[in-house]
User: Fold this.
Amino acid sequence: MDDRDLIRQTLRTVPDWPVPGVQFRDITPLLQNPRVFRVLIDQFVHRYFDARPDAIAGIDARGFILGAVLAYELNIGFVPIRKKGKLPFDTVEESYALEYGEATVELHTDAVKPGDRVVLVDDLIATGGTMLAGKKLLERLGATVIEGAAIVDLPELGGSTRLRAEGLALHTLVS
Ligand code: 5GP
Assistant:
């Protein structure tokens, strides 16, 4: 079995969570199995080793797990993009629409410098709203997002198409 098949088969789908009708793709089994966790992280390490990004930005909260290990392996810094109200220092913030209501994410103003080349990491792309907000925050500070990386793309929700149309290159492992 190749690495992507292993990842696909280890993902767990939880029906009707968090609300009826949603098929939630649960990545926790990927983290729980040390062999799969290593295969998963190595996929991203190999992808970005030669690109030599300046930093990894991880999105709250599963993007922290993946992004922090990736940054450690690449020997570069990790910066968190957090849900509003969690970061203590000066921040920039970006709001985006959810199915019902709105969400806001924040980034410390000194997280990246103008000209930094950053990889943006999350676990999954659905509508793309979260990753687009992250891209805008990083760009507001003058950084360039060289690629958005995620384990799972849900193409039927249109997020990856939308993000590419917004000029964000993407790398996902499983659709
Ligand atoms: P989007 O903003 O693309 O609609 O939603 C993506 C965000 O919601 C990501 O931060 C992701 O963690 C979370 N998310 C939405 N649906 C799922 C899902 O089925 N599984 C997981 N693991 N995360 C999801």
In short: The domain at 52-174 is CATH 3.40.50.2020 (Rossmann fold). The first strand starts at residue 12 and ends at 15.
